[in-house]
Specification:
There is one protein chain. By secondary structure, the protein is of the alpha+beta class. It folds into 2 domains: 126 residues, DNA ligase/mRNA capping enzyme (D-amino Acid Aminotransferase, Chain A, domain 1, 2-Layer Sandwich), CATH 3.30.470; 92 residues, Nucleic acid-binding proteins (OB fold (Dihydrolipoamide Acetyltransferase, E2P), Beta Barrel), CATH 2.40.50.140. 18% of the residues lie in helices and 40% in strands. The protein contains 5 helices and 21 strands. The relative contact order is 0.15. It comes from Alicyclobacillus fastidiosus.
């Protein structure tokens, strides 16, 4: 099911930065940066230490997205690569080549008090009161009610999409998915050939024909399947089996499927592909 943009006075809408979701903790002059899974990535982004001087509160926890942004677009692969570095020399070189920005959109805690039960607009007010934008920190802008217009603007810019956040009682919830926050992304749709599959976890290996008529591997698709679609596929695919290697059953490329994805990597692979339907 495709999630479409909408207008509603019950929501505010933000552009979505394309990077890693991060929590930034400030205590005095100390900055620590965590992923949503609790992994510390402070040393990977030394430029974030300068953010302490841009935050007026002594103790604060901010929610946002870390991303590499230049030439008016987001570069996911650059940030993703930086977040995985451990070598100090490579970290310094990556900082110089691809500096990161913390795009902050919410505040969880300030100076001894939780902000999580406050209304969303109250938290936005606090955020603007305590955060001063700078070279490595930006406050994510928002509009109330007009999601379709923002959707069209971000699409024209080639950005990932928008986030719709429910008003007025949008209390902050950790690790909870609901209609309070809705991601509406700019998906690209493509028809691909099925080259192989894996049973557990279930995923399809997909590819396409290049300009020379050769099959090119585009990646694996793990999401978007209904159980009945998996069952039907596993029932008919044995007749197409060829080789099996490292847990992957390769098949003759006779079956095709439609997938959606955000964009292509620098190597041409599909980024975050999701299954839509089999093509009959």
């Amino acid at each position: 099911m495709r999630k479409e943009p909408f207008d509603s006075t019950r929501y505010l809408f933000e552009p979505k930065a394309d990077g890693w979701r991060l929590l930034l903790h400030k205590q005095g002059s100390r900055i620590e940066v965590y992923t949503r899974n609790g992994n510390v990535v402070t040393k990977q982004f030394p430029e974030f230490q300068s953010l302490a001087s841009l935050i007026s509160s002594d103790e604060v926890i901010l929610d946002g997205e870390g991303a590499c942004f230049s030439d008016n677009r987001f570069w996911f692969e650059r940030f993703d690569s930086r977040a995985r570095l451990n070598n100090p020399n490579k970290i310094v070189r990556a900082l110089q080549e691809h500096p990161a920005t913390f795009f902050v959109f919410d505040v969880l805690y300030r100076d001894g008090e939780s902000c999580m039960s406050l209304d969303l607009l109250q938290r936005k007010t606090i955020l603007h009161d305590i955060v001063l934008p700078g070279p490595h920190m930006s406050i994510v802008p928002f509009v109330e009610g007009e999601g379709i217009s923002l959707w069209e603007q971000t699409k024209a810019l080639g950005w990932e999409g928008i986030v719709a956040k429910r008003l007025p009682k949008s209390a902050y919830r950790l690790e909870t998915r609901s209609d309070m926050w809705l991601k509406i992304k700019h998906w690209t749709y493509a028809d691909v050939s099925i080259l192989g599959y894996q049973r557990s976890p279930f995923r399809l290996i997909v590819g396409d024909v290049d300009c020379e008529g050769k099959l090119v591997l585009l990646g694996s698709v793990e999401y978007g399947f209904r159980q009945e679609e998996k069952t039907a596929f596993l029932r008919i695919v044995p007749q197409l089996h060829t080789l099996e290697s490292k847990g992957i059953q390769w098949v003759r490329p006779s079956l095709r499927a439609q997938v959606k994805f955000l964009d292509r990597t620098s190597k041409g692979k599909l980024r975050i592909p999701s299954f839509e339907k089999f093509i009959i």
